[in-house]
Amino acid sequence: xxxxxxxxxxxxxxxxxxxxxxxxxxxxxxLLLPYTQQAPDDARQAGQKAVTGTQARADGCVDAExxxxxxxxxxxxGPTIDAIKARTGAKRKLIVGVDQNSYRWGYRNPxxxxxxxxxxxxxxxxxxxxxxxxDPDAVQFKAIPTNQRIPAIEDGRVDMVxxxxxxxxxxxxxxxxxxxxxxxxxxxxAPTSSPITGYDASLAHKKVCTAAxxxxxxxxxxxxxxxxxxxxxxxxxxxxxxxxxxxxxQLGEVDAVVTDGALAASQAAQDPxxxxxxxxxxxxxxGVAMKKDAGDLVRRVNRVLVDYRAHGWQxxxxxxxxxxxxxxxxxxxxxxxxxxxGS
Length: 343
Hints:
- This protein is α/β, with parallel strands linked by helices.
- 36% of the residues lie in helices and 17% in strands.
- It is built from 13 helices and 15 strands.
- It has helices spanning 3-9, 12-37, 41-44, 79-85, 120-133, 149-154, 169-172, 215-225, 243-250, 261-270, 295-310, 313-320, 322-325, and strands at residues 94-98, 101-102, 106-108, 117-118, 139-143, 160-161, 175-177, 182-184, 186-191, 207-211, 234-239, 256-260, 274-277, 284-286, 289-291.
- The strands form 5 sheets. The protein has a 5-stranded mixed β-sheet with strand order 11-10-12-9-13, with helices on both faces. A 3-stranded parallel β-sheet has the order 5-1-6.
- Strand 3 and strand 4 form a beta hairpin.
- Helix 1 (3-9) runs antiparallel to helix 2 (12-37).
- The relative contact order is 0.18.
């Protein structure tokens, strides 16, 4: 609270009265703050146990439940979809930001003609393009680094981003999300010979790599600051693309990587010298990200997802992810959608 600014803006006895109220509220906030932030004794033991749970925001949004804020499905076109359909000739395509380096999610397969983009996310993009433009190949793919996903949407460089992007309260302030299409959680990836056992005290004095702008980085910074992660854990290594962390790990420049377990499992499949350490310590959901004012496009994608969950999702999972995540794991079924009331 900026008391000096409030004081300069107020004049007269009425201003004095309001200032008294503001000061009283500020005092109450300070007195109550330690109670709102106090953690249980066992949770305050820095890194002694795996950290679970979610982070609530001031507006009441909880990250693990943020996907419930998405609007309900609809097949009706609107200004966003009309603009996409109005593109002519070779430009009549859905412009989608994707990854081209995440094995089995969005990557260029060197064994195909022209090193075609393939993966779980790519399958979903083709389904959305088919529904909107009548052609699954009517897509212009744009490779977007992890830390450029939101700017690419806000700047209008892409119509949407389908790139293992977690739905969070903070991101909902900048973009709109579809209903979730995948459930995962943060995990630790480290060399098989490493003494690191998971998201716990074994990360003390260890250098951890994360992607800039990722939910992993935000979680680690918050937990270290709150005493739920060893204070000596080094979080200074951040990279534009999540896959760069695997390279740093292979070169011995970092001791561990923290990222979505679904991505970490695919990386472990690429390199048998690394493995997942410990269980997931968060619950997260991937969604298709779009502009905040693109309500018609969000609803249209949600309608696509309704059909995709019933016809297509499981086939894509079995093709790309079952080998690394398992056929009967918690990730092996699509998450159930929940929508805003009255939407």
